[in-house]
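To whoever is covering the structure queue this week,

Two jobs came back overnight. Logging them here so there's a record in the thread.

Job A:
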Amino acid sequence: MPEPTGKVLYCTVVAQNYLPQALALYASIQEIEPDKELVILVVDGDRRDLEQGRPGLRVVTTEVLGLSERQVLELAAIYDVVEFSTSVKPLFFKALLEEAPTVVYLDPDMMVVSPLAELEGLVAEHGIVLTPHFLQPIERSVDHITEGHDLTVGIFNLGFCAVGRSAVQFLDWWWSHLERECLIYPLLGVFVDQKWVDVGANFFDAHSLRHGGYNVGPWNLHERRFQAEGSGYALDSGDDLRLLHFSGFDPSDPEAISVRLSVDLREVGDDFPALREVSRKYAGLVNSARGMLGASPEYGFARDADGGVLTKRTRRTYRKHLLGMPMGRTLPSPFIGSESARFRAWKRRAIGARIGLTIGDASLAVKYSFPDEFAVFKARVPGFGAIRKRLLDAGRVRR
């Protein structure tokens, strides 16, 4: 294994409404690895004021990505907050790799429990380090999740990713998809950045981390039981607990570990005291940050310059038309006041395209909901192949 050299940077990406979680992550890093720096990219505002009095914290804006203002606003227009925040990871990685040979991305809703000691050496050896959702086949007795989870959202959980400078080719490839294809689009098998990495892990020989203490989340608690040991926690496998992922966590109800996956401590009683202990500690960190920050603001790109909500369908239609624009031309931005009239005019003209996208999605759903009827329809309708192609092209996701 090559000898690791140089510093390690930790980073995360948030919109302002998720800053309490990012500051909780920072607090956990300060407690466990005070020598490490956390860089927070805020996609919808400038919050460099948060650096004051917080050693080891750096807050940056989208200026760090190396994109023009127009390019950033296009991403904000075509994507919702989750899609936008995940789409820029490759560019953020590349920017930070210019100053550190190892960069570790951590989702803001994570908590560092013990030093991430293995990562620098693994990145030096492999270039790309990923964590799969599961390390073992799931027994049928597990009732809150199945292996089908990976078919929907991807093999790897991209709440964690560590890269080195040898990963630049991978990052460029990843960005080539995420620039316009970082979608939550299960009908076409796409889930933001994660499903693309299933493909890229094969192309670029990514390392699948088998250490059970990394990225422990509600999806894999059945195989990652841990208990207090000394000053930390250890898994039944013997691995030290390194990194917890509180996905779908409500800090006002820490017993409900994940509302999204229906994992609730109250259903297992006192069977997992260590998890109860760390979940309450994490809730305290988030609630403390909430109290300091005050009321959570609305996502900065939720509305256009006129105050109208940008719906998912409008964003999808904007994306489709943007992809069809000739080189060097663009659409009026929903976020620039001087372009509001042109954007309203575009919305009126795009009604047909929005309906077409809806019909395309509905057709895909019908195909799998009524397979027999769909087969009969396909056989009886002349030129069905051309119709199918138009419907699939409506989504403008490469197939």
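Job B:
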Amino acid sequence: MSSLAANITLMFQDLPLLERIAVARKLGFQGVEVQFPYTESPETWQKALHASQMPLILFNLPAGDFMQGGTGLACHPGKVTEFQQAFETSLPYIEALKPQVINLLAGRKPEGYSQEDCLTQLTENLVYVCQQLKPHPLKVTCEPINNLDQPGYLLPRVKDWQDLAARVKQDHFGLQLDIYHAARMGDNPAQLILENANQLAHVQFADSPGRSHPGTGNLDWIAIWEALAKVHYQGWMAAEYPAGQQDSFDWMQALPALP
């Protein structure tokens, strides 16, 4: 059965990061994910997670200046050494926290390089990460992110991910499907679930266009949940939207049990 995780980077931002874990558990989430765990030591994370008996399901590899509007590291042909050094930074966290999914942010095409240059470099970096992480029981993903919220993002649609996966050709490379990002690009999330069932490694969700909880936008959540049930999705589903402790989480009671 699928379990629910809270993205504690976006949720409960009035609290210190690690205190958000206990709040997520109290609200009924079974796990947490975080965009970047690197502001705290692996040991500090271990203690906080153990105190709440919560697993950390997913986090991103370090992404350089991407979150500040820069190119990031993963697709930049001139930053291979920097990318590999950043990956090394993540290893103590992967070894200590044992996530089920490690996500790589594709980044933006830097000036002076072609789209093909950047896709080739992204492919090489993903193959490198997949091979380095083979001893770990996890999936590696490269999340499609809409290019309305993140202008210039190299991998805005699931179709782009499919093309990338054909290049990467690694068994434990999977699709991190963010329902919000897919909808913002005009795609049908339920149809994407059906079409990519065998590649689904992780699902994130928020309503669109407002990026809030299910029921606040225009998405057909019944169709989405039915699609996940139809493909017998067994992975985690992570709520990734800004929310406070006092916000409504009634949608959790309306969520059907998935096989």
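Note for Job B: The chain has one domain: 3-254.

Please reply-all if you pick these up so we don't duplicate work.
Q.
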